[in-house]
Amino acid sequence: LQTMEAIDGGKLFSTAYLMDLGACIKTLRYCAGWADKIHGRTVPMDGNFFTFTRHEPIGVCGQIIPWNFPLVMFIWKIAPALCCGNTVVIKPAEQTPLTALYMGSLIKEAGFPPGVVNIVPGFGPTAGAAISHHMDVDKVAFTGST
Fold first, then answer.
1. Block means of pLDDT (10 residues each) for the chain, length 146 residues?
2. Fewest beta carbons within 10 Å, which of 4, 9, 44, 118?
3. Number of domains in the chain
4. To which pathway does this protein belong (predicted)?
């Protein structure tokens, strides 16, 4: 991943390793720690009542990431969404899609069910617009500029 990130984004190998890869590992560990802690709570109430809250996944999260930190942004977008039980449709920047595509192969190899993480490379006016306007996408997370 370090080599791919350095070559794809034109970064120093040391930067890709020390900063980008380190941030990704910390984010994955942090979000993995939350995966079994996001749940509802019972609320004490007087009388013969039982009250509780429930946390439910949003559904399909469309995510559009920029070119300057492709691996970090990929992880920052998918890790919280997945730990909360959502599915992801992610569009990497057209300038730096290699890391996201490789992560897709690792996700498949790890045994994620088909359709949980979907990577849609393409240009903003076509792929980005399709994600942001699709009626089945319940939330859009966009990092970048217009």
1. 87 87 95 89 88 92 95 96 97 95 97 97 95 97 82
2. 44
3. 1
4. Cofactor metabolism; retinol metabolism
